[in-house]
Amino acid sequence: MTLFEIIPRYDRNQALRVKRFLMAGLVYAVIIGLLALYVLQGFMDFRNWLLTIAAIFAVNSIVFLILRSGRNERWHDPSLTGFQMVAACLLMTLTLIEVNTGRGALLLLYVVLLLFGVFRLRTRQFMALGLFALLCYGGVIAFVYYRHPESTDLPVELLQWLAFAVLVPCGGFFAGYVGRLRQQMREYQVALQQAREKAHDLAVYDELTGVNNRRNILCLLEQERVRSDRLGLPFSVCMLDLDEFGRVNQQFGYSAGDQVLCQVAHGLTRVLRAVDELGRYSGEEFLIIMPDTQEVAAAEQAERLREQVENCRFKGLDPSLRLTPSIGVSDYQPGEGLWAVIGRARWAADKAFARGGNQTLICSREPPDSLSAP
Ligand SMILES: Nc1nc2c(ncn2[C@@H]2O[C@H](COP(=O)(O)OP(=O)(O)OP(=O)(O)O)[C@@H](O)[C@H]2O)c(=O)[nH]1
Predict the structure, then answer these.
(1) For residues 18 and 68, is the Cβ–Cβ distance under 8 A?
(2) Which one has a higher pLDDT value, 281 or 72?
(3) Ligand 1: which atom is nearest the Cα of residue 353?
(4) What start and end residues bound the annotated signal peptide (predicted)?
């Protein structure tokens, strides 16, 4: 990001602040054009017009340099709203002092300034700015009356001041209303973000165990399959089925069964490598993806998983409670479908259970005839 890039590209907040600053710059340009008409009409001195432009340019250059240097981010008001508004108010006051005729029309410039305030300031800040503007305009009247009492229509000036004074509390009311809307929008945004995150978690994670749900583990498996086909890297899957899990529910209750599933899932996560993925495939079946791993290495890793479940002591539950898993391992054969590799792993897990459970079996590359999509 260079200083000469007008709007920063990589920081949305700073970009927004600079855009607002540029919008204010546009309003200044219109005001300078308007004052040029005053000069043409002889209501303002040409030299004073140039001085006004120089002052506007100087103040805004400082604001721009602060915004682009990023110093503003360390300040309490990073948008520099207060500073810009007070500066604008002072610039308008100086301009009004230098205008000989038609000052009343230029009073609208304060109104434009306050309009900006309606969207940016809280009621109290807005009222403070309004009072400051009133004080400035009061100062203008006092100054021009002191300098040219004969050409100053004091009652008219005071009436204009009064009309302006009525506007300030009205603006304060609107500023408060807009402020509340802004606050509401911020709250809605936070709630929406939280709801999005919750929806994402529900779509991706299993609510009970917190590991990937069936849909997501299948999605990750598909990604791994595509990666493997492209790069020619192997990967394996393990199907881990808890032996006779139904008995846990029957003996200790469904809620204890839930806790067991959670603790098993957390135990498995501790043993797995960071690159492996664990998902709850169905009630008491877990599917594990092991990237860059052939089936022999996968079976060794599956044994560690088996030992982890076998040695698991379930916190807060009956100390006699033990569980064992039957694990089927299979590696992906290039070009085959997902269900083929899952089917082989599942077949091996069933076979392991049929042989007494608590063991790991690899399914040979020749799929048994009975395999079908799970
Ligand atoms: N507590 C609890 N139990 C579940 C949940 N999902 C499935 N189960 C139970 O898991 C058991 C699965 O039964 P089966 O598929 O016959 O498996 P099993 O009893 O472990 O028998 P094998 O797998 O053949 O050893 C059933 O009793 C289900 O009620 C769950 O979310 N919480």
Answers:
(1) yes
(2) 281
(3) 25
(4) none
DSSP letters, 60-116, are: HHHHHHHHHHTGGGGSSSTT-HHHHHHHHHHHHHHHHHHB-S-HHHHTHHHHHHHHH
In this predicted structure, the answer to whether residue 345 has a pLDDT above a threshold of 90 is: yes
What residue owns the CA closest to ligand 1's atom 24?
A: 244
Please state the atom number of ligand 1 nearest to the C-alpha of residue 260: 1
Structure tokens at 188: 């809605």
The span from the CA of 100 to the CA of 292, in Å, is 84
Work out which ligand 1 atom sits closest to the CA atom of 208: 31
State if residue 139 touches ligand 1 by the CB under 6 angstroms criterion: no
Q: Does residue 193 or residue 12 have the better pLDDT?
A: 193
For the chain, domains (ranges, CATH) are 12-198 (no CATH), 214-362 (3.30.70.270)
Tokens, residue 309: 């479940």
Strand order in the sheet with 285-291: 277-282, 285-291, 235-242, 325-331, 359-362
Q: Which residue's alpha carbon is at the smallest distance from atom 1 of ligand 1?
A: 257
Residue nearest to atom 4 of ligand 1 (CA): 283
Q: Atom 28 (ligand 1): residue with closest C-alpha?
A: 246
Does residue 243's CB lie within 6 angstroms of at least one atom of ligand 1? Answer: yes
186 has pLDDT over 60: yes
Mean pLDDT confidence for 67-76: 86
Closest CA to 208 of 257, 241, 244, 253: 257
Coil, strand or helix: which one is 3?
A: coil
This complex has an ipTM of 0.92
DSSP letter assigned to residue 275: T
Best CA proximity match to 136, nearest among 172, 101, 97, 175: 97
Q: Write the pLDDT tens digit of every residue in 225-255.
A: 999 999 999 999 999 999 999 999 999 999 9
Query: At 373, is the pLDDT very low, low, confident or very high (cuts 50, 70, 90)?
Result: very low
Q: Once rounded to an integer, what is the mean pLDDT over residues 285-312?
A: 96
Q: What is the 3-state secondary structure (H, E, C) of 133-180?
A: HHHHHHHHHHHHHHHCCCCCCHHHHHHHHHHHHHHHHHHHHHHHHHHH
Ligand 1 contact, 328 CB (< 6 A) = no
